[in-house]
Amino acid sequence: MFRFALTGVANSAVGWAVIFGGLWAGLSGLAANAAGYTVGLVLSFTLNRRFVFGVGGRISAREVIRFLAAFAIAYGANVAVLVAAQGALGADSPLAQLPALAAYIVIFFVLSQFFVFRPASSE
């Protein structure tokens, strides 16, 4: 779990650097955001695959699709929890981000471990 957290911190730092670098270079907010998330997803896949879950060998299309599906599910849960927390705490409450982030982390970790990067023998 420590490696997963460390990967998340590194991924966030790089993603934010790309976003803010893109804004500084004159990209629109949407373009900078898309660039940051694209770089972040590639880095997240690479670090989680090798550093967190110790998967080596060739990358398969199935693995990439599973990773993107896990991200989409975790992000969808993040948004749902955020909306619910904002309803309880107020739309502008930064505290509403905390349960949303926790939901994302737990769901993404579980899906990564048991669905995306599971050992080949369990397929």
List the helices and strands and how they pair.
Elements: H1 2-24, H2 29-52, H3 61-89, H4 97-116
Helix pairs in contact: 1-2, 3-4
Helix content bin: over 70%
Instruction: Outline the low-pLDDT stretches.
Output: none
On the 0 to 100 scale, the average pLDDT is 88
Order of helices and strands: HHHH
- Category by helix and strand content: mainly alpha
* Structural domain tally: 2
Distance between the termini: 23 Å
How many β strands by DSSP? 0
> What value does the Rg take, in angstroms?
16 Å
Q: Given the structure, what is the number of helices?
A: 4
Q: So what's the overall shape?
A: globular
How would you characterize this protein structure?
The protein has 123 residues and is mainly α. It folds into 2 domains: 1-52; 57-123, no CATH class. It is 78% helix and 0% strand. The chain has 4 helices and no strands. The protein has helices spanning 2-24, 29-52, 61-89, 97-116. Helix 1 runs antiparallel to helix 2 (29-52) and helix 3 runs antiparallel to helix 4. The mean pLDDT is 88.
